[in-house]
Specification:
The protein has 457 residues and is α/β, with parallel strands linked by helices. It contains 15 helices and 16 strands. It has an 8-stranded mixed β-sheet with strand order 4-11-10-9-8-5-6-7. This is Aminotransferase.
């Protein structure tokens, strides 16, 4: 006889379902055993027949019982031990991101630098003016309005004459790289700058691609490194982390290399080009390319915020056609609401004003940081390099030291810092100083920590 006690916290059918299910799992109700009829069980438990019926139907749907015509319901055949749960600890993933009081490797953007009031105003405009559009599915490449705004911006400020149909929007460059691998093919031999963007190396590894390191000299990628590669990744306007700006002569050499074979391509990451501190940015490789061998990539994570996960790439026409033919089944990974807001931000001139304001602000911050550094006791121990290289500069330590001991000592004092070695290079004495989110007070404290650590090495 089935005897259960009910309460008022859950629907009766749900409680009855749970009781019978538990009895089956614990072997109290054995395989093949017939259950009471709906009417008799309802009478026995003083509940309605419909309550029993709903509980039985749920058990039937989940396979715990089965029904025989004109016979009734029976317990399905199960091994009791299959339901036994082993004691387990709470599932917690290890947090690989350690937190430091000062992080000189962070690319984050300070909240004070984001145009919250303008963004909020434009968001309201989008919600008022584009309610129907926001509910429609968008093209694989992204919304038309944002691609048109980006095309206009590239034409006016980077001298790139491109169509909106060449532009692909994605949530971060990592996603776009994955699309490019599928577009260009896993049979290609890819070349990556060393030192360089380590995440890109991880992406290529995840696809089991053949990857060759492209070593740099003072002008960028060495032409001698290009042997046996067919697709190269480069950051000519502002290489990270070395800060090298590739001269025009070397850019033309890369284009000549690409033009030698039909399926050679250059992926040009125009990283941080908006924040060149001295002189005008050099023309992108894409603007110099006459044979459709260059793919242009950029992102709004540096110019707006590291949490605005909106990036884009510009494909040469024949690759845009190939993308449309073979990869248009993908859905765009950026919400249409964010795309419309960003499009307004660009079209109404706010983006240009924001870049100009931030360039002046970052230039002042860089000058203040360099002044703090040159006036500190640390200055005789270091050499400043590439101070005009966007939102970071290099700090070369003059004295010999134990790298592991140095890094460990900095971490112990709450300072996170990276060297060129952390980006695949051999140089472990050159520190990369990112200052986009750094306050002057924090940098002053970082100087003190660095000086104290170096004195004791």
């Amino acid at each position: 006889m089935l005897t259960y006690t009910f309460n008022d916290h859950k629907p009766l059918y749900s409680q009855l379902y749970s009781y019978i299910k538990t009895d089956i799992q614990n072997g109290i109700l054995s395989s093949g055993e017939k259950l009471p009829s709906k009417r008799s069980l309802a009478k026995q438990l003083n509940i309605s027949t419909i309550t029993v019926e709903n509980a039985y139907l749920q058990l039937l749907d989940e396979g715990f019982i089965y029904a025989l015509p004109r016979s009734g319901y029976y317990v399905s055949k199960f091994h009791v031990q299959s339901f036994e749960k082993k004691p387990s600890k709470p599932f917690l993933l290890e947090d690989h991101h350690k937190h430091y009081s000062i992080d000189l490797s962070s690319h984050a953007t300070s909240a004070e630098n984001f145009p919250f009031s303008i963004w909020a105003k434009l968001s309201r405009q989008v919600l008022s003016n584009h309610q129907d559009d926001l509910m429609k599915s968008m093209p694989t490449q992204g919304t038309t309005i944002l691609r048109e705004a980006i095309a206009q911006y590239l034409n006016e400020f980077r001298n790139l004459k491109v169509s909106k149909d060449q532009i692909i929007i994605g949530a971060g460059t990592e996603y776009l790289y994955s699309l490019l691998i599928q577009l260009l093919g896993t049979h290609q031999n890819y070349g990556i700058e060393v030192p360089g963007y380590r995440t890109l190396h991880h992406i290529y590894d995840a696809y089991n691609l053949h990857v060759k390191p492209l070593y740099l000299d003072k002008k960028g990628i060495k032409p001698s490194s290009l042997k046996d590669v067919s697709v190269i990744h480069t950051t000519p306007s502002h290489h990270f982390p070395t800060g090298i700006t590739m001269p025009l002569s070397r850019r033309m050499s890369l284009l000549e290399w690409a033009n030698e074979e039909k399926e050679r391509y250059i992926i040009e990451d125009d990283y941080d080009s908006e924040f060149r501190m001295m002189g005008k940015p050099l023309p992108p490789l894409f603007s110099l390319d006459q044979s459709e061998h260059v793919i242009y990539m950029n992102t709004f994570t540096k110019s707006l915020s590291s949490t605005i996960r909106i990036s884009y790439m510009v494909l040469p026409p024949h690759l845009a056609i190939r993308f449309n033919d073979h990869l248009s089944f993908y859905n765009c990974t950026v919400s249409s609401f964010e795309q419309y807001t960003l499009a307004y931000f660009i079209q109404e001139g706010y983006f240009e004003k924001h870049i100009n304001r931030m360039r002046n602000k970052y230039r002042k911050k860089r000058n203040d940081i360099l002044s703090l550094l040159t006036e500190s006791p640390l200055y005789p121990l270091v050499h400043i390099k590439e101070e005009n290289a966007g939102l970071h500069f290099l700090l070369e330590i003059k004295q010999d030291y134990d790298y592991d001991h140095f890094i460990s000592s900095c971490h112990t004092k709450g300072l996170h810092i990276k060297t060129l070695k952390d980006y695949g290079g051999k140089d472990d004495k050159t520190l990369i100083i990112n200052y986009s989110s750094l306050s002057l007070a924090s940098f002053k404290e970082a100087i003190t920590i660095l000086y104290d650590v170096l004195k004791k090495l």
